[in-house]
Amino acid sequence: MLITTLRTIAYTLFAFLIFSCAGSRQRAIKKNWDTSLEENIYANMFNGILVLDPVSGDTLYKKNTRKYFTPASNTKIFTLYAALTYLPEYMPSLEYTTQGDTLYFRGMADPSLLHPYFQDSTALQMLRHQGKLSLVVRPTKDQPWGPGWAWEDYDSYYSPDRSSFPMYGNVAQIWKEDSVRVIPGIFRKNISTKNKGVNRLQDQNTFFYPDYSSDTLLVPFRTSDSLTLKLLGQALGKEIHLAQHFPLDERKILYSIPTDSILMQMMQESDNFLAEQLLLAASLTIADTVNTQLIREQMLNVHLNELRDKPRWVDGSGLSRYNLFTPESMVAVLHRLYREVPRERLLSWFPAGGVSGTLQDWFGAGQSPYLYAKTGSLGNNYCLSGYLYTRSGKLLIFSYMNNHFRVPSAVLKSEMQAMFAYLRDTY
Questions:
Q1: Is 225 within the bounds of a domain?
Q2: What is the pLDDT of residues 49-104, one digit of tens each?
Q3: What is the CA radius of gyration of the chain?
Q4: Which of 20, 54, 185, 279 lies 20 to 30 Å from 296, alpha-carbon distance?
Q5: 103: in domain
Q6: SS3 per-residue string spanning 62-107
Q7: At what angle do helices 409-426 and 2-36 cross, to 10 degrees?
Q8: Same structural domain for residues 305 and 380?
Q9: Do the domain assignments include residue 248?
Q10: pLDDT for res 367
Q11: pLDDT at 10
Q12: What mean pLDDT value characterizes the chain?
């Protein structure tokens, strides 16, 4: 009896010490972060922070967790979850059927076909060995640009058109060797060496590459069904016709590259084009018409209906300033991913601090990375949401959102870096 009593007392004291230490660490973190957030750089800006220990369920820090922020590319975290929910292991590339000697086909919004990074030619290999080809027009409710995108970015590499049959990443690559070169070659006669101060005319595919330039430019081109016919015809070396409707025969799906490879590139490099195309592709798994509003509503009303603060989610990339998300919603989706995806696969999608992607130059540890997170940058906005390993081996989930600051973003990142390092070393 005495021994049992002593053991009980010992276990009680041990548990008390453990919880007491955990409580003191949390108080130290709160005090350190509260002090940091009193710095002058935060005086005229708006920020929201939530840090969660997913094992204990403890909230280690919170500030404005249910306030809405412009998330910028943190929006891609929701796009990632939508892609995982609706897209199969390999990307749907073409929908097709055969009638007589003609193959009827149309795009499934797969971004990989002849993309500068992926260089996939799965669809071309299949089409090349068919007889007559007819491209079927895909109905769409989405415009080439998302709502709230900056119109002056039309000639910038990060704002390509969205389309159901993208090729070459919907950008023209222009560079100089002995003469000015371009991919796709169909634009060779559309390049002027005049300096117009822009890379392309706003309303047509006329590109500008000044004589003195030695850079490689990636310039979005305006998409259309007629241009797709020309690009495909050039790539295949054969004529392609346009059809308004599919025959009534049963349709099949051609698949291309692993979906994971697109998810990783989207997250690591914060690729807007890939994010937008993934949402388009997801919408085509449940409807015949391109309709990303449908997929966003399905995600929010069905798969994420427990979110207390329903986001305003208007595009896949975060280019739109109409997007509004709370830190709590970001952490909720990150928590879902934490529970549903194996750890190694999950962290491979996110930039690693000091090592890869958009975090290559920030949040490093000198040895192995401790922070895996998605950045989100727009003018005067910087958000960071993801996962953090502490020195004690715990994995934390966080969202740190900053809007409306006027200091250089590097100053803000330096402050955040110091705060995260303290969290890593203390908890």
A1: yes
A2: 999 999 999 999 999 999 999 999 999 999 999 999 999 999 999 999 999 999 99
A3: 25
A4: 54
A5: yes
A6: EECCCCCECCHHHHHHHHHHHHHHHCCCEEEEEEEEEECCEEEEEE
A7: 170
A8: yes
A9: yes
A10: 76
A11: 47
A12: 94
Same domain as 60, residue 116: no
Lowest mean pLDDT among 3-12, 28-37, 251-260: 3-12
Q: How confident is the model at residue 18 (pLDDT cuts 50, 70, 90)?
A: very low
- The answer to whether 52 touches 60, Cβ cutoff 8 Å, is yes
CA distance 323 to 300: 14
Output the pLDDT for position 1.
56
Q: Which single residue is written with the structure tokens 């159901």?
A: 164
Residue 274 in this model has a pLDDT that exceeds 60: yes
CA distances to 15, 28, 56, 58, 395 from 19, in Å: 6, 14, 11, 12, 18
Name the domain count of the chain: 2
DSSP 409-423: HHHHHHHHHHHHHHH
167 in Cβ contact with 231 (< 8 Å): yes
Question: Would you state the structure tokens that stand for residue 88, as one six-digit string?
Answer: 């199969």
pLDDT tens across 294-321, in order?
999 999 999 999 999 999 999 999 999 9
CA distance 82 to 65: 23
Q: Would residue 221 be called left, alpha or beta, if left means φ above 0 and alpha means ψ between -120 and 50 degrees?
A: beta
Q: In terms of residue numbers, what domain contains 187?
A: 94-256
Q: Establish if 276 belongs to a structural domain.
A: no
- Please tell me whether residues 98 and 229 are part of one structural domain: yes
Q: Which residues have C-beta within 8 Å of that of residue 237, sequence separation ≥ 6?
A: none
- Cβ neighbors of 32 (< 8 A, separation 6 or more) are 419, 422, 426
pLDDT of residue 248: 86
From the list 80, 22, 65, 56, the residue with the least C-alpha distance to 398 is 65
For residues 174 and 182, what is the distance between their CA atoms, to the nearest angstrom?
A: 4
Read off the pLDDT band of 19 (50, 70, 90): very low
The answer to whether residues 105 and 235 belong to one domain is: yes
Looking at the fold, whether 251 and 111 belong to one and the same domain comes out as yes
Residues 73 and 98 in one domain: no
The tokens describing 145, both together, are 């640009």
Q: Which of 256, 276, 297 is the last residue of a domain?
A: 256
Clarify whether residues 101 and 247 are in a common domain: yes
